[in-house]
Amino acid sequence: MSTLFGPVVQQGYVVPDVEAAIDHWVARGVGPFFLQDISGFPGWYDGRDIMADMRAAFAYCGDQQIEVISPAGDHPSIYRDFLDHTPQGGLQHLAYWVDDVDEALSGIAAAGHDYKVWQRYGQAPDYKAHAYIDSIDKPGVMIQLMARSEFYDMFFGLIQQAAADWDGATDPVRMLDMSTGSPQAVPYRR
What we know:
By secondary structure, this protein is α+β, with helices and mostly antiparallel strands. Helices cover 23% and strands 41% of the residues. The protein has four helices and ten strands; from the N terminus they run βαβββαβαβββαββ.
C-alpha cells in the first residue's frame, strides 16, 4: 500500500492494440473484459481542454482492476505521449480512490511532494472526476486519482462481479453499452 495514496485499485496499461492486450490477459485467466469505445470525453491535458477519444477495456483479477487503453482521434493525451515513448505499450498508471481529487492534490502538495497534474477528466471547467499526476523529480508510472461516486461503484461493481462469476471461457470480451445511462454488457463480436 502506498503511504501517499492508499491501496492500488487499478493497473492501467496503454497499448497500441486493445484486442491484442485483452488476448494477452485472457490467456492468463484474467477476464472477462468489458470493452468501450469512448469519444468526446471531456478533459484537460497539460493546460488545455480536450475531448478525448479512446478504446478502453476493463477486467478484474481479485481486487485489482486491469485496464487497457488505446488512444484514438487527434487530441493530445497522456496515452498518446506514452505510446510515442513506448510504442509497444506497457504499464502507464496506477489508480487510487480518493473522496475528492482537489483535496487529495492539496494534501499531496501540503505534505511536500512535488507532482504535476498532466490530465484530468470530468466536466469543465474543474474536471473533478480523475487526475493523472506524475512526480516532478522521479517521473515514470503515473498516478491516477479517481473520485469515488455511485456511478463508479456501479460500473466497476458490474465488472468485478462478472470476474467473480466467470468460467474462464464464456464471452471473454463484452461491450459496455451506456445508452441507458447505466452500464450494461452486450455481446461482442470481432
